[in-house]
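Suppose a colleague, Dr. K., hands you the sequence of a protein chain of 175 amino acids and asks what its three-dimensional shape might be. Before reaching for any lab equipment, you can write down a predicted structure in token form. Begin with the sequence itself:
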Amino acid sequence: MNELDLLAAAVRASVALWLLGAAVAKLRNQDRTVDAFGSYGLIPRGLAELAGWLVLIAELTLGLSMLAALATPAPEFGTAALFCWFGFIQAWDLAHGRSHDCGCGAIGGGRISWRRTAVTLSASGLIAATAMSSTQSTTTVAAAALLGTSILLVAQGRSLVSLGGPHPIDSGGGA
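The predicted structure, expressed as tokens, is then:
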């Protein structure tokens, strides 16, 4: 096992535990999850409970699959897609001036912000890089990891390195 394989295994285990922790938190506080999912405004409030259960099932399935270290990169690609979707819906709401609970569960739960969105999107890139580590060249994996990290830096710059301090959305204000 080389260094890249070790790093991929560490990322896989960390993300699996992150997913499982979020799923357990959603199970323990279903009302909060339904409220958070309904707050995004992408689905009718009546479907928020179903969406919460679908995400919970996806998190459990992907987390357990990643822990089982299956010989396929499918769980990592599924997780990367899930995180990309999470990042997109957070960015959509922030761009439209909305601020509410992210629905993330216990692991990193709180209100949506540009910083949280950047972390989610960069995690998506890093997870995709992990999925490619066994099938692609080191250069391809490094490029995917760099893409994920770049998204983080750009979004952090948008939030923290503005002339007026943190972006008003990050502090709960409007756009």
